[in-house]
Structure formats: structure tokens, C-alpha cells
Design goal:
- Helix content is about 75%, strand content about 0%.
- With about 170 residues, it is mainly alpha-helical.
- About 30% of the residues are buried.
- It is elongated.
- The mean pLDDT is about 95.
Length: about 170
């Protein structure tokens, strides 16, 4: 990063790079959780949900690109090996051992809620102090909030479907 760019950052650069590396690890894990979950998922609404989960996976990968770019702009080194992803991530990776669509959605919902906390912390940390990182964090936060809403909507649809099924079986 240029001299003037370094001068205008009002946060500890090393703390920021650490936080960004944690976010980077979380994005890679989120990408894989979405991608593999979409591939193994079974159950109702699978054909409608799978392409959306793959879109979410692509968006998580794009977040990773943005975060890496910011780390390098700040003169930092991004986490270089997948072996470190679990070590630095504050979010859990949940393997899709139960491929039922609802289980996959709940796993991804947990991941999104953790990501929302991550980007809220980054936005709070950089607000008024590092405009570039703040804008990146709030942009990603907006997408993570949309992902959370999508997943909550699908879960609600599945709940309604199950309730209707129970009513019909009771007749």
C-alpha cells in the first residue's frame, strides 16, 4: 500500500490483517460448505435450492477474493494453506454428513450468522478509520444478510410444506 494510504488508516494494521485472515479462512470454509452441501443434498425442494446454494458458494468465493486483495493492499500475507483454515476460522465448518435438505440449510444458516458477526465486527473496527475496508466489509455484510434471509425463507417453506403434509395425512 502506498505511503498516503498507510497514513490514513486509523486502526492497527496488524490487527486488521489478522481479522481479515480470519475472514478469509471463514470464506473458504463457507464456499466449500455451500458447494459440497449443494452436491450431496437430498429431499424436497432440492432442485430449487441447489442452484441457489451454488450461487451462494460463488458469492463466498468472491468475498475471499475481495478479502485477499485487501490483505495484500495492506501489505499483509494471506493465509497460504488450507490446513490453516480451521485454525484461524472463528466459524465452524459442519460437514454435510446428513444430506437431508433441511440439515444442510441449518448448517449454512449457522455459517451465515457467524459471517454476519465477522463483517459487523470488521465494519465496526474500521468505521471512520479505514474507509476501503469498511466499504468492503459492509458490502459483504449486505450479501451475508441476504443469504441468511434466503435460507430462513427456505426453511419456512419446508416447515409449511411439512405442516400441510401432516394436515393431508390426518384427513
Amino acid at each position: 500500500m502506498g505511503r498516503k494510504g498507510t497514513e490514513i488508516i486509523g486502526v492497527d494494521r496488524e490487527d486488521l490483517i489478522r481479522m481479515l485472515n480470519e475472514a478469509l479462512c471463514e470464506e473458504w470454509l463457507a464456499y466449500y460448505q455451500y458447494w459440497i452441501g449443494a452436491r450431496v443434498m437430498e429431499g424436497p425442494m432440492r432442485s430449487e435450492i441447489e442452484p441457489e446454494l451454488l450461487l451462494h458458494a460463488d458469492q463466498e468465493l468472491n468475498h475471499a477474493v475481495q478479502v485477499v486483495d485487501r490483505i495484500t493492499q495492506l501489505g499483509g500475507t494471506p493465509v497460504l494453506t488450507p490446513a490453516d483454515w480451521m485454525k484461524y476460522s472463528q466459524c465452524d465448518y459442519e460437514a454435510p454428513e446428513d444430506p437431508y435438505v433441511e440439515a444442510i440449510l441449518h448448517q449454512n444458516l449457522n455459517g451465515e450468522r457467524c459471517a454476519i458477526q465477522r463483517y459487523q465486527k470488521l465494519a465496526d473496527f474500521t468505521a471512520g478509520k479505514d474507509h476501503t475496508t469498511f466499504q468492503m466489509a459492509t458490502s459483504i455484510l449486505t450479501e451475508e444478510l441476504e443469504h441468511e434471509q434466503d435460507i430462513e425463507d427456505w426453511i419456512a417453506d419446508l416447515d409449511r410444506m411439512k405442516a400441510e403434509w401432516k394436515k393431508l395425512r390426518g384427513m
